[in-house]
TrEMBL record:
Source organism: Geranomyces variabilis
Pfam families (alphabetical): A_deaminase (PF00962)
GO function term, MF aspect, one: metal ion binding
GO biological process annotation, one example: inosine biosynthetic process
Gene behind the chain: CECR1
Family annotation (InterPro entries): A_deaminase_dom, ADGF, Ado/ade_deaminase, Metal_Hydrolase
The keyword Signal is annotated on this UniProt entry: yes
GO cellular component: a single term: extracellular space
Transmembrane segments: 12-29
Family: Belongs to the metallo-dependent hydrolases superfamily. Adenosine and AMP deaminases family. ADGF subfamily.
Keywords: Hydrolase, Membrane, Metal-binding, Secreted, Signal, Transmembrane, Transmembrane helix
Compartments in which it is found: Secreted
Xref: NCBIfam families: adm_rel (TIGR01431)
Enzyme Commission no: 3.5.4.4
Descriptive protein name: adenosine deaminase
């Protein structure tokens, strides 16, 4: 019979029969092994125990260890956030719109379209501790509010600014603002009303122009130096607007509302010496300005009783002269006496390359001594290591000097994760690092936020607080986008991590005494419990 079967057909049967035999044998042996011992195709129990131990060892250093009790509600809330991150993250990644991978101006509207962002917007953020006064509130609001003042005047100056680059200077035409009912030289100044009307494209185009010169959004900068130069210029102009006391007061109220709506109930903001002028052209001294802020915060608290406070860290620019910095230290010491609850410490800001901390050590240690002599405490909250560079020179080396100078927190500390020894020191000294991932991206330190060293710090055990540094200059408000980007970028983070980040904003704040911190933490816990309940209901 077989002789009648065509050759081609016999040829096909052979591999089929062989394959079948292999499958049957494999099945037979696998069943046999499974019956005779339990280590068929999974690692054995001993291996799994070692594996678990190693995972636990890895976890043991985490910054958020044991933050949660993991109640049933917390588990459900965590699962909901986790599910959103997984599904929305994958869907956006599939169309090349994964938010942490995008430059923030492109990521913003993508983030706003997600349910994860809805959830994170409503999250209570506790305290947020790294801001600069000029950049707290939406530019659109500020420009509209300024133009709306009937005595608003504007002039346009070509401004030259230093770029530290080659060629070393660049030039741009900037609007300068002045608020006065007196007449100004009409060759230079026009009222904001007529400037807006005469602007090519009309008032709306003027507003857009004013907003855009106030921001660093349109450009990606080639170097840290260029970004810094552009950045400094923006602040000059914002200062013009905010030195008009009536506008300043509305701005502070607007900032409180903005951050409160974003879930922040305590704020620390860097402020430089800030005299204002009023509608009569009178100088409003800095101490009066502080008093006005206190009145605005008090009024805000009567309508928002769970808002804790807005406090200031007094700052000078690090490129000031030694005499200038000396004078600032004298000022902050006297402010610590006159406004101890509002002025909580001192910092130096601006491109860290300008003056390394090592050059300022004698001044700053003398400042500490002078404060002691004046019977006040003077804490430093120093920007340090806000750089891509790692090496013996500043800005990276500023981390070393900031630690030796006894800084209470580190501003940015972007380069810290490269130094295991310094990280250990930071952990042992219980110093928190103020991290602003979007700011770092906008100033060119990082592209994809998944490469941001904040995750290294957090998993290593460095306590981190999140902030947005200069949100209005980057085209946004609040700190929810930063929380979103960090949570979306790093799957190692969970609900406990978010809670720890928010709590750190209170724990590492300058709120005085255990009692006021405990009160702030109590208020936070109540809001947190509500949020968890809301998430768990999904
Ligand atoms: C490590 O920590 C993460 C985040 O809290 C948690 O999900 C995970 O179960 C932990 N793993 C171990 C082995 O403890
Ligand atoms: C503009 O001024 C009017 C009248 O003072 C006020 O009602 C309005 O809220 C102001 N608008 C803005 C954007 O400041
Ligand atoms: Zn800063």
């Amino acid at each position: 019979m077989s002789a009648t079967v065509p050759a081609a057909s016999r040829f096909r049967w052979a591999p089929f029969a062989a394959g079948l035999l292999v499958l049957v044998l494999a099945y037979y042996f696998s069943v046999k092994r499974r019956i005779s011992n339990d280590e068929a195709d999974v690692p054995d129990g001993a291996y799994l125990a070692l594996r678990q131990a190693l995972l636990e060892l890895d976890n043991a250093t985490r910054f958020d260890r044991n933050t949660l009790q993991w109640t049933a509600l917390e588990r459900k809330a965590n699962a909901y956030l986790h599910k959103l991150r997984l599904h929305e993250g994958a869907a956006l990644e599939a169309v090349s719109r994964f938010p942490p991978a995008l430059r923030f101006p492109d990521a913003k509207s993508v983030i706003e379209g997600t349910r994860l962002f809805d959830a994170i917007r409503r999250m209570p953020k506790g305290g947020s501790l790294h801001y600069h006064l000029e950049a707290l509130v939406d530019q659109k609001w500020l420009v509209a509010a300024a133009a709306n003042e009937s005595n608003c005047h504007v002039s346009f100056e070509a401004e030259t600014y230093r770029t530290f680059a080659n060629p070393p200077t660049a030039s741009v035409k900037l609007p300068r603002f002045k608020f006065t009912s007196q007449s100004l030289p009409s060759t230079e100044w026009v009222t904001c009303r007529s400037a807006r009307e005469r602007h090519p494209g009309g008032p709306a185009a003027f507003d857009l122009y004013a907003e855009s010169v106030n921001s660093v959004i349109p450009n990606a900068y080639a170097t840290e130096d260029i970004a810094w130069a552009r950045f400094g210029m923006v602040f000059n102009m914002l200062g013009d607007l905010l030195h008009y006391q009536p506008l300043f007061e509305r701005y502070i109220a607007q900032a409180l509302q903005t951050f409160y709506d974003d879930g922040v109930t305590y704020l620390e903001v860097r402020i430089s010496k800030w005299p204002n002028y009023d509608e009569h052209g009178r100088v409003v001294a800095f101490s009066e300005v502080l008093d006005s802020v206190k009145r605005i915060v008090d009024a805000f608290r009567t309508t928002h009783p769970d808002f804790i406070d807005l406090r200031f860290i007094y700052q000078d620019v690090r490129f000031n002269t030694p005499e200038g910095i000396q004078a600032s230290l004298d000022t902050v010491i006297s402010l610590r006496k006159s406004h101890p609850l509002q002025i909580v410490g001192f910092d130096l800001v601006g491109h860290e390359k300008a003056t390394p901390l090592i050059d300022l050590v004698p001044l700053l240690t003398a400042g500490t001594r002078a404060a002691k002599h004046a019977k006040v405490t003077l804490d430093y909250f120093l920007h340090a290591g806000e750089t891509l560079h790692a090496g013996p020179a500043p800005p990276d080396a500023n981390l070393v000097d900031a630690l030796l100078l006894g800084t209470r927190r580190i501003g940015h500390g972007f380069s810290l994760s490269k130094h295991a020894g310094l990280m250990s020191k930071v952990i042992a000294s219980d110093i928190a690092v103020e991290v602003a991932v979007i700011s770092n991206q906008m100033l060119g330190l990082v592209g994809d936020i998944r490469r941001h060293p904040v995750i290294d710090m957090m998993l290593h055990g460095v306590q981190v607080v999140l902030a947005s540094d200069d949100p209005s200059v980057f085209g946004y408000e609040g700190v929810s986008y930063d929380f979103y980007q960090v949570y979306m970028a790093f799957e190692a983070l969970d609900l406990g991590s978010l809670k720890k980040l928010a709590m750190n904003g209170i724990a590492y704040s300058a709120l005085g005494g255990a009692e006021s911190k405990a009160r702030a933490m109590g208020g936070f816990e109540r809001r947190w419990a509500e949020w968890v309940q809301e998430l768990a209901a999904h």
